[in-house]
Write a structure and sequence with these properties.
This protein is of the alpha/beta class and 335 residues long. The chain has two domains: 9-175 and 316-330, Rossmann fold, CATH 3.40.50.1400; 178-310, 3-Layer(aba) Sandwich (Rossmann fold), CATH 3.40.50.1400. Helices cover 46% and strands 17% of the residues. The protein has helices at 27-39, 48-74, 87-102, 119-128, 148-159, 178-191, 209-213, 218-233, 258-267, 285-301, 317-330, and strands at 9-21, 106-115, 133-138, 167-170, 199-205, 240-245, 272-276, 306-310. The strands form two sheets. It has a four-stranded parallel sheet with strand order 2-1-3-4. The protein has a four-stranded parallel sheet with strand order 6-5-7-8, sandwiched between helices. Strand 7 (272-276), helix 10 and strand 8 form a beta-alpha-beta unit. The longest helix has 27 residues, at 48-74.
Length: 335
Amino acid sequence: MTAPSPVFDKRSAVLLVNLGTPDAPTSAAVRRYLAEFLHDRRVVDLSRWLWCPVLHGAILPLRSPRVAKNYAKVWLDGSRTAGCGSPLRVHTQDLADALQSRLRDLRVRMAMRYGNPHLRDVLRSLRDEGLQRLVVLPLYPQYSATTTASVFDAVARELACWSDQPELRVIRDYHRDDGWLAAMAAKIRALRSNAPGEKLLFSFHGIPERYVRNGDPYPRECEASAAALAQRLGLNTDQWKLSYQSRFGREPWLGPATSDVLRDWARQGVARVDVACPGFAVDCLETLEEIAMQNAELFVSKGGVGLRYLPALNSDAAHADALAALVRRHTTGWN
């Protein structure tokens, strides 16, 4: 039986916001995307006089072709999924659709902080449809100024131009949310039920240490998520570890680095490991290429037998249920 169409109120909306993605796995598209991303002062807080010449003179010309090749490895062509394009965009849209089926009285839309569909354009579309109440849910379980705060900045800049602003509620984080933790733990447990690896690694995206010294609470929230998941999974301290991936540049970043942990485990004789990435709501380049390909190859090259990447929650029913409950708590009092 076909499910009935949603009967939502166009005045009330939920906006899921993810990081972003290039429009195509090409050097030109990646360059446009990286330029917008790396111009954000929340992401790189260096002086523009110093940073912009380096960014445009060296980083974008050299990095864009390499990153485009990596995107091409994981780009969805429609043969393996109902959608096609960037995995992050496809999975985020699928999650938004799953959330819409659970929040039938609210309009659910998806936007990207960088790239398309652009956050600014989606907000203006909602405004033109009569928006009066808005919940913004950045798809980052753990708060960081480099991600969540950047979304809030962009929303605030756009709404500052509106004469008639909507009632606004923002969800800061959900790193200890019971529904999200239950969904994550259940998926990890199910994926490891058959021949689990000797070790489980929780790999989170890294940020520079300097940002943490300036007050960013991100590592505390990553540690809290990892510890809560390990407890739910019944793991001893010697069975799991937390690490940080995706380092960029020369300054010190949060550690230990995912690649360093995998090297050490391989040298210690650990044969098989499982890697989960609880900081990513949906699968993307950093999980599908960096972990499942690059780091899997690294682990084997250093003596390990195999690395198994445990996929993100994506649009799983339990994930959509958890986020729907989270949104309901933040829309209390709305008719």
